[in-house]
């Protein structure tokens, strides 16, 4: 079941043995960096849990139902935005073109839906399973409500996914079995990217540096790179040649990229400049740029100051 999950043998062993020994915990906490396979591991684990309820020839159907999130014994929760009376996931918000300043959160209403889901017996599976992605985004009221569910989960298992135990309430952590996930080394990272059909990413060392051992982050970073206008990208990868050139680049960035893309561009340029030019002064200047953008300074002015400063670095 875990063939797709590379470089996380400890997690695989812990989860597999819990099923084999019939000692599945009421709640798990999958902790680790974004993009290292926590969500994939949850899906593989659920496939293993539910496989006892189907015939061998039906395993592929079971896998598809779990991957598509339409199994009656599975409830998958993601952080949401509140928009015009609707709850939208990040993907749904992006599809609708909804721009939000505040990040999405797991809301109290979603925890109440979990309670309602767990109030009925499991269908077509030995137990109900609830997965909470980005559990660290729970509002305090939601976290307190979830605590009551964790105390009496019934015939169910809950999986919380978070970057670290410190990211969620200690009272929640104490009721979960912790499953650690680790960043991949270079060999494992290249294996995953190649297997997933993303071998072209390996030609961009700055993207691999941004990923920091996370295949998911590598793929997202490459997608972001591809979304940036090629001409603009070539401009920012060169030191400006004059004051006018510096101001023109700043204008292009402000016009073509939203704030999120500009912040990502800083990460990319820091890696690129360090690998190509190796001048600490440029890296420090870009870090100032990040702080200014996060302080809601006018982006065009911030970038103008950035490139005028880079122009003077020898």
TrEMBL record:
Its EC number is 2.7.7.7. Keywords: Nucleotidyltransferase, Transferase. InterPro entries: DNA_pol_HolB, DNA_Rep/Repair_Clamp_Loader, P-loop_NTPase. It holds the Pfam family DNA_pol3_delta2. One of its GO terms (molecular function) is DNA-directed DNA polymerase activity. Signal peptide: none annotated. It is an enzyme of class 2 (transferase). NCBIfam families: holB (TIGR00678), PRK07399.1 (NF005638). PANTHER family: DNA POLYMERASE III SUBUNIT DELTA, REPLICATION FACTOR C / DNA POLYMERASE III GAMMA-TAU SUBUNIT. This is DNA polymerase III subunit delta. The gene is holB.
């Amino acid at each position: 079941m875990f063939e797709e999950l590379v470089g996380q043998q400890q997690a695989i062993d812990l989860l597999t043995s819990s099923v084999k020994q019939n000692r599945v915990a009421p709640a798990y906490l999958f902790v680790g960096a974004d993009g290292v396979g926590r969500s994939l591991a949850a899906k593989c684990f659920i496939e293993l849990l539910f496989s006892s309820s189907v015939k061998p020839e039906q395993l592929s159907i079971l896998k598809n139902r779990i991957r598509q999130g339409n199994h009656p014994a599975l409830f998958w929760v993601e952080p949401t935005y509140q928009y015009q009376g609707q709850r939208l996931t990040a993907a749904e918000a992006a599809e609708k073109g909804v721009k939000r300043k505040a990040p999405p959160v797991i809301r109290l209403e979603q925890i109440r839906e979990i309670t309602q889901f767990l109030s009925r017996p499991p269908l077509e599976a030995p137990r109900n399973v609830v997965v909470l992605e980005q559990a660290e985004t729970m509002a305090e009221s939601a976290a307190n409500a979830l605590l009551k569910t964790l105390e009496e989960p019934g015939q169910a298992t809950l999986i919380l996914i978070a970057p670290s135990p410190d990211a969620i309430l200690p009272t929640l952590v104490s009721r979960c079995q912790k499953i650690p996930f680790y960043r991949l080394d270079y060999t494992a990272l290249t294996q995953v990217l190649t297997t997933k059909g993303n071998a072209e990413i390996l030609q961009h060392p700055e993207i691999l540096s941004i990923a920091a051992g996370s295949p998911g982050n590598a793929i997202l970073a490459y997608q972001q790179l591809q979304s940036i206008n090629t001409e603009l990208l070539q401009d920012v990868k060169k030191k400006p040649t004059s004051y006018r050139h510096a101001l023109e680049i700043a204008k292009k960035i402000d016009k073509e990229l939203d704030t999120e893309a500009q912040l990502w561009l800083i990460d990319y340029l820091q890696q690129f400049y360090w690998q190509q030019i190796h001048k600490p002064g440029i890296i420090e200047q870009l870090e100032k740029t990040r702080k200014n953008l996060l302080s809601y300074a006018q982006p065009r002015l911030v970038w103008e100051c950035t490139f005028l400063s880079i122009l003077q670095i020898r």
